[in-house]
Protein backbone atom coordinates (compact mmCIF):
# COMPACT_ATOMS: atom_id res chain seq x y z
CA UNK A 1 0.00 0.00 0.00
CA UNK A 2 1.44 3.36 -1.02
CA UNK A 3 1.48 6.09 1.54
CA UNK A 4 0.21 9.47 0.50
CA UNK A 5 2.42 12.36 1.44
CA UNK A 6 0.78 15.60 2.42
CA UNK A 7 1.43 18.45 0.00
CA UNK A 8 4.47 20.47 0.80
CA UNK A 9 3.78 23.76 2.48
CA UNK A 10 4.37 26.55 0.04
CA UNK A 11 6.96 28.95 1.26
CA UNK A 12 6.52 32.60 0.38
CA UNK A 13 9.21 34.05 -1.85
CA UNK A 14 12.13 35.52 0.00
CA UNK A 15 12.49 39.28 0.20
CA UNK A 16 15.49 40.46 -1.81
CA UNK A 17 18.67 41.67 -0.18
CA UNK A 18 21.76 43.24 -1.66
CA UNK A 19 21.99 43.79 -5.43
CA UNK A 20 19.01 41.45 -6.01
CA UNK A 21 16.81 44.40 -4.98
CA UNK A 22 17.48 46.04 -8.35
CA UNK A 23 16.41 42.90 -10.23
CA UNK A 24 13.19 42.12 -8.37
CA UNK A 25 9.83 43.71 -9.09
CA UNK A 26 8.46 45.79 -7.23
CA UNK A 27 11.64 46.64 -5.35
CA UNK A 28 13.35 47.68 -8.57
CA UNK A 29 10.93 50.65 -8.69
CA UNK A 30 12.49 52.25 -5.59
CA UNK A 31 15.48 53.78 -7.38
CA UNK A 32 13.39 55.35 -10.20
CA UNK A 33 10.98 56.68 -7.55
CA UNK A 34 13.89 58.37 -5.78
CA UNK A 35 15.36 59.78 -9.00
CA UNK A 36 12.07 61.12 -10.38
CA UNK A 37 11.13 62.54 -6.99
CA UNK A 38 14.49 64.28 -6.79
CA UNK A 39 13.85 65.85 -10.19
CA UNK A 40 10.50 67.14 -8.95
CA UNK A 41 12.19 68.80 -5.99
CA UNK A 42 15.02 70.27 -8.11
CA UNK A 43 12.70 71.64 -10.79
CA UNK A 44 10.31 73.23 -8.30
CA UNK A 45 13.24 74.75 -6.39
CA UNK A 46 14.56 76.18 -9.67
CA UNK A 47 11.36 78.23 -10.05
CA UNK A 48 12.16 80.08 -6.82
CA UNK A 49 8.88 78.64 -5.49
CA UNK A 50 6.70 81.24 -7.14
CA UNK A 51 3.52 79.89 -5.53
CA UNK A 52 4.52 79.02 -1.95
CA UNK A 53 1.21 77.53 -0.86
CA UNK A 54 1.01 75.17 -3.82
CA UNK A 55 4.64 74.36 -4.36
CA UNK A 56 5.54 74.17 -0.68
CA UNK A 57 3.45 71.02 -0.40
CA UNK A 58 5.03 69.65 -3.58
CA UNK A 59 8.51 70.21 -2.20
CA UNK A 60 7.60 68.68 1.17
CA UNK A 61 6.13 65.55 -0.40
CA UNK A 62 8.95 65.09 -2.89
CA UNK A 63 11.76 65.62 -0.38
CA UNK A 64 10.27 63.55 2.44
CA UNK A 65 9.33 60.74 0.03
CA UNK A 66 12.84 60.70 -1.40
CA UNK A 67 14.38 60.45 2.04
CA UNK A 68 12.06 57.72 3.32
CA UNK A 69 12.39 55.76 0.07
CA UNK A 70 16.16 56.05 0.30
CA UNK A 71 16.04 54.65 3.85
CA UNK A 72 13.80 51.83 2.66
CA UNK A 73 16.17 51.05 -0.22
CA UNK A 74 19.15 51.01 2.13
CA UNK A 75 17.31 48.70 4.52
CA UNK A 76 16.63 46.27 1.66
CA UNK A 77 20.21 46.49 0.40
CA UNK A 78 21.62 45.81 3.86
CA UNK A 79 19.07 43.07 4.64
CA UNK A 80 17.49 44.67 7.71
CA UNK A 81 14.19 42.96 6.92
CA UNK A 82 15.61 39.50 7.78
CA UNK A 83 13.02 38.02 5.40
CA UNK A 84 10.13 39.01 7.67
CA UNK A 85 6.79 39.08 5.84
CA UNK A 86 5.70 42.18 7.78
CA UNK A 87 8.07 44.20 5.60
CA UNK A 88 5.82 43.50 2.61
CA UNK A 89 2.88 45.05 4.48
CA UNK A 90 4.99 48.01 5.58
CA UNK A 91 6.28 48.49 2.05
CA UNK A 92 2.81 48.30 0.52
CA UNK A 93 1.27 50.70 3.04
CA UNK A 94 4.10 53.19 2.66
CA UNK A 95 3.98 53.17 -1.13
CA UNK A 96 0.17 53.33 -1.21
CA UNK A 97 0.06 56.32 1.14
CA UNK A 98 2.89 58.02 -0.70
CA UNK A 99 1.12 57.50 -4.02
CA UNK A 100 -1.90 59.38 -2.65
CA UNK A 101 0.29 62.18 -1.32
CA UNK A 102 2.18 62.39 -4.59
CA UNK A 103 -1.06 62.55 -6.57
CA UNK A 104 -2.14 65.54 -4.51
CA UNK A 105 1.27 67.14 -5.04
CA UNK A 106 1.17 66.47 -8.78
CA UNK A 107 -2.25 68.11 -9.10
CA UNK A 108 -1.07 71.15 -7.12
CA UNK A 109 2.05 71.36 -9.27
CA UNK A 110 -0.09 71.23 -12.42
CA UNK A 111 -2.14 74.10 -10.98
CA UNK A 112 1.07 76.06 -10.32
CA UNK A 113 2.09 75.36 -13.92
CA UNK A 114 -1.16 76.86 -15.21
CA UNK A 115 -0.69 79.95 -13.01
CA UNK A 116 2.93 80.40 -14.12
CA UNK A 117 1.89 80.74 -17.74
CA UNK A 118 1.20 84.45 -17.38
CA UNK A 119 3.46 85.39 -14.46
CA UNK A 120 6.87 87.03 -14.34
CA UNK A 121 9.62 85.07 -16.11
CA UNK A 122 6.78 83.15 -17.70
CA UNK A 123 8.62 81.17 -20.40
CA UNK A 124 11.34 79.84 -18.09
CA UNK A 125 9.14 79.19 -15.04
CA UNK A 126 6.40 77.69 -17.20
CA UNK A 127 8.86 75.21 -18.71
CA UNK A 128 10.33 74.31 -15.32
CA UNK A 129 6.87 73.89 -13.79
CA UNK A 130 5.75 71.78 -16.76
CA UNK A 131 8.73 69.48 -16.32
CA UNK A 132 8.09 69.28 -12.57
CA UNK A 133 4.44 68.37 -13.23
CA UNK A 134 5.50 65.67 -15.68
CA UNK A 135 7.94 64.12 -13.21
CA UNK A 136 5.41 64.41 -10.37
CA UNK A 137 2.85 62.37 -12.32
CA UNK A 138 5.51 59.83 -13.38
CA UNK A 139 6.59 59.47 -9.75
CA UNK A 140 2.97 59.02 -8.68
CA UNK A 141 2.61 56.25 -11.26
CA UNK A 142 5.78 54.54 -10.00
CA UNK A 143 4.53 54.59 -6.41
CA UNK A 144 1.16 53.16 -7.49
CA UNK A 145 2.89 50.41 -9.49
CA UNK A 146 5.07 49.56 -6.52
CA UNK A 147 2.17 49.47 -4.07
CA UNK A 148 0.03 47.17 -6.20
CA UNK A 149 2.73 44.90 -7.62
CA UNK A 150 3.58 43.56 -4.17
CA UNK A 151 0.36 41.53 -4.31
CA UNK A 152 1.31 39.92 -7.63
CA UNK A 153 4.66 38.46 -6.64
From TrEMBL:
Write down the PROSITE patterns for this protein, in alphabetical order: MARVEL
Q: Which residues cross the membrane?
A: 27-51, 57-80, 92-112, 132-152
Membrane topology label: Multi-pass membrane protein
Q: Name one GO biological process term.
A: myelination
MARVEL domain spans which residues?
21-153
- By its UniProt entry, which Pfam families does this protein fall under? MARVEL
Name of this protein: MALL protein
Q: Which organism is it from?
A: Podilymbus podiceps
Gene name of the record: Mall
